[in-house]
From TrEMBL:
PROSITE patterns xref list: HTH_LYSR (PS50931)
Name this protein carries in UniProt: LysR family transcriptional regulator
UniProt entry keywords in alphabetical sequence: DNA-binding, Transcription, Transcription regulation
Single GO molecular function: DNA-binding transcription factor activity
Coiled-coil residue spans: none
Limits of the HTH lysR-type domain: 1-56
Sequence similarity: Belongs to the LysR transcriptional regulatory family.
InterPro entries in the record: LysR_HTH_N (IPR000847), LysR_subst-bd (IPR005119), WH-like_DNA-bd_sf (IPR036388), WH_DNA-bd_sf (IPR036390)
Length: 289
C-alpha cells in the first residue's frame, strides 16, 4: 500500500469529507477521490461510503493500521535525518499541566551550559505531544494525566524507548474556596456525575477520568492553565487538577478524591538515541522528580 494513499485515506476518515481532506492536504477534491479509488482498487474492497462519507467495516480496520503505519514511517524518517543533523538542537514538548518551575529551571541550566543551543518549547495536548515524540519532531517530551497510583499513563503511541515516571502527586477536585464542597474531607467522583464540569480537552480532559457520565457545563478549548483555573475559581464548573497547583491559588479549594484513587502523573518520553542536550535535560529531570 502506498503511504501517500494511506495519508489521504486517514485525512478523509478524520475530517469526514473529501473536500475537507483536500483542504488539509492542499490537494484538489478530484485528486483525493482518485487516490481513495486507487486504494480501494488495490485492496479490492470499499473503504468509505460516499453519501454520507463514512468508514466501512474494512475502512475502520484499515484506519487503525494506517495511523500506526504513518506514525512509524515518520519516526523512521526522523531517526535517519537526526543521525546527520548538526548538533545543538533541543525541542521540548510539554502538555500544559506538565509545565512547572522545576522544568523551566532545568531547561535554563542546559541552555546556560550550551550557549549556542537552538531551543524551542512546544505546548499542546497529550496526543499531539506523544505523536511528536514518536516521530522525532521533538527531542524530549513531558506529558501528564490522571491515573491510579503507580499506573502508567495510557498513551496513543509508545516510543520505543518507553515512558519514564517523572513525578506524581495527589489529584483533587478544584472548586471555588467558598463552594459547599470546599469543606468536604473527601469525595467520590461518581457522586458528582450530575454536577457541572469544565470540559477542557487540551489541559484536563474530562473524558480521561475513570468515571462515566460526568456532565459538561462549559467547554474550554484552549491550552492555558491560568484560564482553566480562572473558570474554576469563578464557579463555572468542576475540574480535576494536581493538588499542588490548587494549593497555590487562594481562590480555589482542593477536595481530596476518595474514589476512584487518582494521582496526577507526569511521564518523560525521549527517543532511543537523544542528542546530548536532551539526554542531559532528561537526566536532570529524573534526578529531581
Amino acid at each position: 500500500m502506498d503511504p501517500h494513499l494511506l495519508r489521504t485515506f486517514v485525512a478523509v476518515a478524520e475530517t469526514g469529507s473529501f473536500s475537507a481532506a483536500a483542504q488539509r492536504l492542499s490537494y484538489t477534491q478530484s485528486a483525493v477521490s482518485q487516490q481513495i479509488a486507487a486504494l480501494e482498487a488495490d485492496l479490492g474492497i470499499p473503504l468509505l461510503t460516499r453519501r454520507p462519507v463514512a468508514l466501512t467495516t474494512a475502512g475502520e480496520r484499515l484506519h487503525r493500521h494506517a495511523t500506526l503505519l504513518l506514525t512509524r514511517l515518520a519516526a523512521a524518517r526522523a531517526d535517519v535525518t537526526r543521525s546527520v543533523a548538526p548538533p545543538g538542537r533541543l525541542i521540548v514538548g510539554l502538555t500544559p499541566l506538565a509545565w512547572s518551575p522545576r522544568v523551566m529551571a532545568a531547561l535554563a541550566r542546559i541552555r546556560a551550559e550550551h550557549p549556542r543551543l537552538s531551543s524551542r518549547v512546544l505546548v499542546d495536548g497529550r496526543d499531539r505531544i506523544v505523536t511528536a515524540a514518536v516521530t522525532g519532531e521533538i527531542d524530549l517530551a513531558l506529558v501528564d494525566g490522571f491515573a491510579a497510583p503507580s499506573d502508567p499513563l495510557p498513551l496513543p503511541h509508545q516510543p520505543r524507548a518507553g515512558a519514564i515516571g517523572a513525578g506524581e502527586e495527589p489529584a483533587v477536585v478544584a472548586v471555588p474556596a467558598r463552594h459547599p464542597l470546599a469543606r468536604r474531607t473527601g469525595v467520590n467522583l461518581a457522586d458528582l456525575a450530575d454536577a457541572a464540569w469544565i470540559d477542557a480537552p487540551v489541559v484536563a480532559p474530562r473524558a480521561r477520568l475513570p468515571v462515566d457520565g460526568l456532565r459538561a457545563g462549559m467547554r474550554y478549548d484552549g491550552g492555558d492553565v491560568t484560564v482553566l483555573i480562572g473558570l474554576a475559581e469563578a464557579g463555572q464548573g468542576l475540574t480535576v487538577l494536581p493538588a499542588g497547583l490548587v494549593a497555590a491559588r487562594p481562590g480555589l479549594a482542593g477536595v481530596p478524591i476518595t474514589a476512584p484513587r487518582l494521582v496526577h502523573r507526569i511521564e518523560l518520553l525521549r527517543p532511543e538515541d537523544p542528542g546530548e542536550p536532551a539526554a542531559a535535560l532528561a537526566a536532570s529531570l529524573l534526578r529531581n522528580p
